[in-house]
Amino acid sequence: MSTQRPHIDEILTAFLSAQLKNKTGLRRRRIVTAEVQLRRCMETDGHRILTDGDRSVLELEQEISPESAFARTMFADDLLFALGIYVSEPWLLPDRIDRDVQLRFAEALSAQLISWRLIDQWDLSCAILEVRGSIRRAKLEQRARTRTPR
């Protein structure tokens, strides 16, 4: 018996729904902005983290239907690697508070991928540590920027 792996689109839809529960107004908008930015990042730069075979699948899908092709065809492990791009320039949101929400969103999403057992934390331990390190660096840079007088 085989279990079908969910595509990124399904994962993000479920994760966003959980993140938005009981959120309203500006708080809700900031979370949606973080998710939209992640999708934009994956569709623009996601090909960089793919194997040759996966890149070929993505290219074929983009020919058929380009909108959201990455999210429709790739899986949780690809999402984890894409988070490494998402939490670095030029994908970090310009507004300080939006950026904080973006980094918390990425941190929670990477933890949820493990919690939902969508990725093997042992096989992908280096990638997980790299994403966590990138998030930590971005948070430290953010703090340093807010402390620096203008």
Automatic annotation (TrEMBL):
Superkingdom field: Bacteria
Name by which UniProt lists this protein: Uncharacterized protein
UniProt organism field: Microbacterium aerolatum
